[in-house]
Amino acid sequence: MAPSAEYGGDVVDRWVVAAAVNGLMAIAMGAFAAHGLRGVIDAEALGWLETASRYQMSHALALLAVALLLARAQARRDRRLLQAIAWAFLAGTVLFAGSLYLLALANVRAFAWITPVGGMALMVGWLGLILLGVLRWRATDDR
Questions:
Q1: What is the DSSP string of 88-130?
Q2: First CA to last CA across the chain, in angstroms?
Q3: CA distance linking residue 137 with residue 119, whole number of Å
Q4: CB neighbours of 140 closer than 8 A, spacing ≥ 6?
Q5: Under CATH, which architecture does the 9-142 domain have?
Q6: Is 100:60 a contact under the CB 8 Å cutoff?
Q7: What is the pTM of this model?
Q8: What is the residue-level pLDDT of the chain in tens, covering all 143 positions?
Q9: What gap in Å lies between CA 43 and CA 76, rounded to an integer?
Q10: Measured CA distances, 63 to 34, 68, 105, 134, 141 (Å)
């Protein structure tokens, strides 16, 4: 099951790299918060960093799973939906975790409004996976 030319290995590889970068950043930020910032910033800011790191890691893994699904996807509809899901997870992670990192480290409250936008993008990604599953399930039932 080789990927099509339109969604070849280079596209899948880019999503794998994006997932790996997010995983690495999540570990680095979590460690920095736990070991470098305790006693430096208040408990609320540490909580924001921990939340951001946790969400970034879980969605790095979700993005990796989407990349693996994309590598195996045969139907054009599935490939397009998986690309949209990947973008939703990436944008959601950048907006959600990024805004919490900025809020915690720079104490700029203006970034707080971005966090729920990122959360909504993450939810869109999960809804996309639900849709993909239902579509594929129904296609299997139709055979």
A1: HHHHHHHHHHHHHHHHHHH--GGGGGHHHHHHHHHHHHHHHHH
A2: 20
A3: 27
A4: none
A5: Up-down Bundle (1.20)
A6: no
A7: 0.90
A8: 444 445 567 999 999 999 999 999 999 999 998 888 877 888 999 999 999 999 999 999 999 999 999 999 999 999 999 999 999 999 999 999 999 999 999 988 888 899 999 999 999 999 999 999 999 998 887 66
A9: 48
A10: 25, 9, 26, 19, 27
